[in-house]
Specification:
With 222 residues, this protein is of the alpha+beta class. The protein has one domain: OB fold (Dihydrolipoamide Acetyltransferase, E2P). Helices cover 38% and strands 21% of the residues. It has nine helices and eleven strands. The strands form three sheets. The protein has a six-stranded antiparallel β-sheet. The chain has a three-stranded antiparallel β-sheet with strand order 6-8-9. Strand 4 and strand 5 form a beta hairpin. The longest helix is centred in the first third of the chain and has 23 residues. It is globular and about 45 Å long.
Amino acid sequence: MTVILVLLTFAIFLMIDYARGEKLAKQPVVRAAAKETAPRVVPALVAGFQVPENLRYHAGHTWALSESQDLIRVGMDDFASKLMGKIENIALPQRGRWVRQGQKIWTIFRDGKSVDMVSPIEGTVTDVNEAAAKNPDLARKDPYGEGWLLKVQAPDAKVNFRNLLGGELARLWTEASAMRLQKKIPVMATALAQDGGVAVDDLTAHMPDEDWAAVTKEFFLS
């Protein structure tokens, strides 16, 4: 039932975003200029989590950033990195693999348990971040920078991006995710009081392994 509610909420967000996108489509000069260079990652704090304004987000807590017209860099978002906590290993796909939007794309391992995450974009994996594969802490501590995970050649990137969340919709979605998480982890409210309202690195540190696996799978839609 929870997953259904999440998907319904996501669908409503997409409808609003699509309507806004139709309006913005009437501004070709602005859109053309945006394609010249890949935008800088600019963090913004929402409910204790970093939500950069110029990324687009999948409801499974992965993100996408255009590096060129059809080359997309992807990774896990800050919410996912803090929910994951200490990661033992990240199993990334091989270069050349075709992945669909919303399909399981990499696997995270922690304390003998594992959880899959889904791709925010459809296309061919052209590169993987070997540094993050060797040192999973990169993905946890710097998910939008050195901790990126894949690059995907996405021929239908424009269409795929319409199915993702950005701007105000991404902020509302993050707030909703944080509220759901607080109900599952009451101590999270106290955790957010530290470091000026920034969520701590490992929100599930004291959660039993079985509960950690269930909670992460629920939020990551896997």
